[in-house]
Amino acid sequence: MPVLGAVGERFAAAPGLAGLRIAACLHLTAETAVFARVLRAGGARVALCAANPLSTQDEVVAALLAEGEVEVSAARGEPRAAYAAHLARLASSAPQVMIDDGAELIVCAHEQGATAGLIGAVENTSPGLVRLRAMAADGALRCAILAVNEALTERIFNDRYGTGQSTLDGVLRATNILLAGRTVVVLGYGFAGRGVARRAQGAGAVVVVCEVDPLRALEARMDGFAVMPALAAAALGDVFITVSGAPSVLRGEHFELMRDRAVLANAGHFDVEIDLPALAAAAVDPPREVLPLVDEYVLADGRRLHLLAKGRVVNLAAAAGHPAEVMDTSFALQALAVEHLARAGGSLEAGVHPLAVELDREVARLKLASLGIEIDELDERQQRYVRSFR
Ligand SMILES: NC(=O)c1ccc[n+]([C@@H]2O[C@H](COP(=O)([O-])OP(=O)(O)OC[C@H]3O[C@@H](n4cnc5c(N)ncnc54)[C@H](O)[C@@H]3O)[C@@H](O)[C@H]2O)c1
User: Fold this and answer.
1) Other residues' Cβ atoms within 10 Å of the Cβ of residue 143
2) Which atom of ligand 1 lies nearest, measured to the CA of 194?
3) Best mutation site among 159, 166, 242, 272 for ligand 1, i.e. most ligand atoms within 8 A of its Cβ?
4) Contacts from 226-231 at CB under 8 Å and sequence distance 24+?
5) Cys-Cys link to 15, which of 5, 43, 79, 362 (CB 3.0-4.6 A)?
């Protein structure tokens, strides 16, 4: 994680977070531990709990506890009550900055009325931001939120390249099919969908894109993909990948038209994009697990549909999620966002704020440097020209 490492070196040289109390609710993985160490290097006091008990790596928790530099309250598979107790304790521990992955910690602090000393928070997920924006609209949000996952480097690394690659990795690990020559239907052409479509094309698949937004649909066409409604694509696809954020994007009317042994996978955050009750209703029997993470549904006319990972997010359920390189830029951005909040010192208004583009540029600069890539700079004359057109 060289980008985060570079931020850590700067923090260690001039600890700008000295004494800052940080509470973070994150997936407790090795990458998160590196992030926590970087915040410590900046002088912060860091307490961690799990964003999801199932993603907690106990050996990472043990290593952090043994080091004794960071407070950690989490265990893999901990019961709901223990998980909620950890969250509540962290929320009420008077943190100045929160780092969240789903807004649960931030919401918990609001529910406890424990937001008095809070300078601000960093939120890393789209559903979390939806919730926080709804709170802001109701006048219930009491602190500034930096929308890290809407920064451009996040969109590029996390959504496009991370999700693009790891989604296909999930499909391949579960099925071991050859993508070349197959028709892959991608439903949703946002940042994540663009990544999936491009990677599938690179693997030799014929890619069809389904969209509801005319701009995105046009962009997909200009990017060289076939574009059509899902009903038309249903009869053509060998592999269907939903990545839209919307419910029932694939439903009964589509299942009726699909080819024998069509593969259905979801890369959207929630398991609502493939209509699972409709799939169960279309099948003559309960599904049969034909391979690990592959459920076969047999329809009345004998066609078989293969659902991956029970419709859950396929890159996490059937593959290893994002590579460490993706988390490298993601956590570097979060570290810079925390520093930004600390410098602002509570002067940012309550509400959801975009991340300053300068932080995005800084992460891009560090990433380029880690790749040994140099780029040009505008000279003085060029700068004058582009600023004033003189
Ligand atoms: N698996 C992962 O690791 C991962 C990573 C990033 C995002 N996501 C999830 O993927 C989903 C999409 O994320 P995004 O950042 O690309 O969002 P986005 O909003 O940029 O794009 C979603 C696209 O889907 C389109 N869409 C909506 N309903 C549709 C429908 N019925 N049919 C076809 N297209 C439809 C929208 O018009 C939009 O262009 C979200 O659920 C997000 O949480 C997952």
Assistant:
1) 23
2) 16
3) 159
4) 230/185, 230/187, 230/254, 231/257
5) 43
E strand or H helix at 303, and its extent? Answer: none
What is the DSSP annotation of 196-250? HHHHHHHTT-EEEEE-SSHHHHHHHHHTT-EE--HHHHHTT-SEEEE-SS-TTSB
Q: Which atom of ligand 1 is nearest to the CA of 216?
A: 39
- Over residues 9-56, the pLDDT tens digits come to 999 999 999 999 999 999 898 999 999 999 999 999 999 999 988 888
Hey, what are 387's tokens?
């600023």
Q: How far is the CA of 190 from the centre of ligand 1 (A)?
A: 5
Ligand 1 near 334 CB (within 6 A) = no
* Amino acid (one-letter) located at 303: R
- 236: tokens are 């053509």
From the CB of 249, is ligand 1 less than 6 Å away? yes
- Cβ count within 10 A of residue 142: 16
Number of residues that this document lists for the chain: 390
pTM: 0.88
Q: Alpha-carbon distance 81 to 341, whole Å?
A: 31
Q: Residue 217: CB within 6 Å of ligand 1?
A: no
